[in-house]
Design goal:
This protein is an all-alpha fold and 192 residues long. The chain contains ten helices and two strands, in the order H-H-H-E-E-H-H-H-H-H-H-H. Strand 1 and strand 2 form a beta hairpin. The longest helix has 15 residues.
Length: 192
């Protein structure tokens, strides 16, 4: 409806709405109980409440059941989110760049903290400082190229090129590889 493909949910041919409100027999593969369970235990009443909710006729005291979704992925209490973080993510710095939910879940240092840690390790005036910051932010920080570029006043494509060139340099420079490893090690314990 927001995209303008239909005026009402019931008019969109590829929507499961008709099954949820009981206008059509629910196919075996579609499980409606979970969603309808947010609207009540009685199936008939739940369908009516769901229908009012979707059609926008819900009263002001009706809360959207998915309002508490965290990182567009996790639905649950703060305790549940903390459990997911502790159990499945922990302190690991997985490649988060393409997994938005992980970027939201993992406590990670900010771009400013990455820059400060780099400056402490090699000095503010070091010729490779910016390249090192870009590389660490891109490869380990979980930031999108656009975010890094905005912070450093560059385009995302320039960040990508710089990171790629720096990675090649790491392949032949043991001292630089050690420096990167030390910075990353320090950043694992930075509280954000």
């Amino acid at each position: 409806m927001r995209a303008g493909l239909a005026d009402k949910a019931s008019e969109y041919p590829w929507s499961s709405y008709a099954y949820y409100v009981g206008k059509q027999k629910t196919p075996a593969w579609l499980q409606t109980d979970f969603v309808l369970g947010y609207f009540g235990d009685n199936a008939s009443k739940a369908r009516k409440r769901y229908r009012r909710f979707v059609e926008g006729a819900a009263g002001p005291d009706t809360q959207a059941p998915l309002e508490e979704v965290f990182a567009s992925t996790f639905l649950g209490s703060e305790a549940f989110i903390a459990w997911v973080k502790d159990t499945f993510i922990g302190k690991e710095r997985a490649d988060m760049r393409n997994i938005p939910a992980l970027r939201e879940m993992i406590d990670r240092p900010s771009l400013e903290e990455i820059e400060k840690a780099t400056e402490l390790m090699i000095g503010k005036e070091h010729r490779l400082r910016k390249s090192l910051c870009l590389f660490v932010s891109h490869q380990y920080g979980g930031f999108r190229l656009k975010e890094i570029g905005a912070y450093y006043g560059m385009r995302g494509s320039a960040v990508s090129q710089s990171s790629r060139r720096f990675k090649k340099r790491l392949g032949v420079d043991d001292k630089l590889r050690h420096t990167v490893a030390e910075i990353v090690k320090q950043l694992r314990y930075v509280e954000s």
